[in-house]
Amino acid sequence: MKEPLVSIITPAFNSEAFIAETIKSVLNQTYENWEMIIIDDGSTDNTAELILNYVKNDNRIQFHSLNKNSGTGVARNFALEKASGKYIAFLDSDDLWKPKKLEKQVHFLVETQVPFTFSYYDCINENGQILHKRVEAPSILSYRQLFFCNYIGNLTGIYSTDYFGKITIDKSRKRQDWILWLTILKQIKKAEPVTESLAFYRVRDNSISASKVKLLKYNFGVYRNFHKYNLLKASLCMIGFLFTQLVIKTKYVKNMT
After folding, report:
1. b vs e for 99-136, b when ≥16 Cβ sit within 10 Å of the residue's Cβ?
2. Which candidate in 51, 80, 115, 178 could, as Cys together with 163 as Cys, close a disulfide (CB 3.0–4.6 Å)?
3. Model confidence over 49-70: pLDDT tens digits?
């Protein structure tokens, strides 16, 4: 029986320092039935040229470019239109997968007959050095738990198009992944991870996620704009979010030294 096709969605913007390593982590997968759809989001560096070098040598890699920088939401939706896989997975242009990532997750999805899963992940710095930090999650993740904290790393989530169809990505600049997982868990109520680290998340010094103030702003925006809560209710939700981050989530962040 042929393995199901996995479509890997990768937006790229000025990623020349990282994109080659990201692509190599996909090429090194033990699971081979995949397509990697890379969307260049108006890069001004050598990102496109680097990607095209890999496209020439492996027809599983697709490359498309946008005329101008439009944000990762637009790029991901463009890639989704091109995707033909039974499963949709996400990998940003600076993150990495461990070799058995797809194999283990697809096996889990098929064996348990669930439409969605994710995994734990480790953190690396801009230079690829391991930070000895592993981010885990509850073994059964409910919608309510996800509502107050995004336990799911974007680079680890994978869902079935047979069950959900292709889920349109929110066009906001940040927290699109959290909105996507909330959309999924609102339907299935709970999700189970593959309980091991299968990826490396790169912590960038200049990223929005590295700025706590900016990140809080985008989190608040999820309650206001996605959930459509008024100012008071969104503010109360943010208190719950902060409590979860400071008190509850810390037990799922492991020091691996």
Report:
1. ebbbebbbebbeeeebbbbbbbbbbbeeeeeebebbbb
2. 115
3. 999 999 999 999 999 999 898 8
